[in-house]
Amino acid sequence: MIWKSVGHSDLFTGGKPVLIRSLLLATESGDVHRYRVCSEAGKPVWARLAKDSEGKIGVLVTGPYSEVLKIPSRREVQPYLFVPLNSLSKKMQKKLLIPLNCELYEEENILVAKEVQSEPYYVASRNSSVFHYPGCKRARKVLPQNRICFNTRNEALHAGYRPHKICKP
């Protein structure tokens, strides 16, 4: 995955943003509750994969178009939140992790991902005309003897492959 620097912190973001409406956050007493999150205008907020300086991957939550985000029931307004993967629903986790080939592990009851560097950026099969992100469920089913690897999207397109309709590389 291609990681881009975020100007206001030591985080790097990657992948496409996903709209979310709620987060699982810990309270001051240590209990975990689901909170609704939105921009100041009441719109859903964006979640993107973010990697810190140690290589741990979590989620950067921001308001759309650089708006601040708010948690109405906690009466908090913040420019962004960096949260672990288990703060999102399973469906949103899957959407965010499609373009990434990673290993998930738990560290102090927090779900964190680490990127696996050995895989290429795009994968295709000799028996089809479709290419995938390496983290796509269909890409994992390609047999090793039929696997073709591409470093860039253009390289796959020039070889006559089209993007997969589900993972949308």
UniProtKB/TrEMBL annotation:
One of its GO terms (molecular function) is methyltransferase activity. It comes from the Bacteria. Residues 120-169 form the Ada DNA repair metal-binding domain. One of its GO terms (biological process) is regulation of DNA-templated transcription. InterPro entries: Ada-like_dom_sf, Ada_DNA_repair_Zn-bd. Coiled coil: none annotated. It holds the Pfam family Ada_Zn_binding. Keywords: Activator. This is Ada DNA repair metal-binding domain-containing protein. The lineage of its organism: Bacteria, Candidatus Aerophobota.
